[in-house]
Specification:
Layout lengths: L2 H21 L17 H21 L18 H20 L3 H6 L1 E4 L4 E4 H25 L10
Antiparallel strand pairs: 1-2
Helix pairs in contact: 1-3, 1-5, 2-3, 2-5
Length: 156
């Protein structure tokens, strides 16, 4: 496997496992959160999927984007299944964008975000995007534990 294939596999595996976790959240727990400052379960899922869209725009523009309106802006929260279904074409579009880069572009393109004092090679930046989803999905697993809800098996 080359770098691009590994990056794409990583994104696909993270999303596959994330969906297992998300579907494991009972409907009566969508609004549960561990403390007043935390996101609810459904807010966390929306954050993950909406942020991937924002990251896609950052990757396309190779840096900060101005005044971005996402497809989720002002959209009421839905069931987890509906959130997943709504996000699916955007995730597929994201995967098309990243799979279109060459090995050389992963190393040569720089993502420059002066607003957050960031400058990263595209390959590095893509791995950090994947890490964002993995971290939040891990948080949701800890939410399930705190709620005393059975956690889905994600280690296959």
């Amino acid at each position: 496997m080359n770098s691009k294939e590994i990056i794409c596999l990583n994104f696909n595996e993270i999303r596959r496992r994330s969906i297992k976790v998300w579907i494991g959240i009972p409907e009566d727990k969508y609004l549960w959160k561990p403390d007043a400052g935390a996101m609810t379960c459904i807010e966390s899922i929306r954050h993950i999927i909406e942020t991937q869209y924002i990251y896609q725009q950052i990757v396309i523009s190779q840096g900060d984007v101005k005044e971005l309106i996402t497809p989720w802006q002002n959209k009421p929260y839905m069931s987890i299944q509906e959130e997943i279904a709504f996000a699916s074409p955007y995730h597929e579009a994201f995967m098309e964008v990243i799979s279109g880069f060459s090995e050389e572009e992963l190393e040569e393109i720089e993502i420059v975000r002066p607003k957050v004092n960031q400058k990263r090679k595209l390959g590095d930046y893509l791995l950090r995007i994947a890490y964002h989803e993995a971290i939040h999905t891990g948080q949701l697993l800890s939410y399930l534990r705190a709620m005393d809800v059975n956690r889905p098996g994600i280690w296959d």
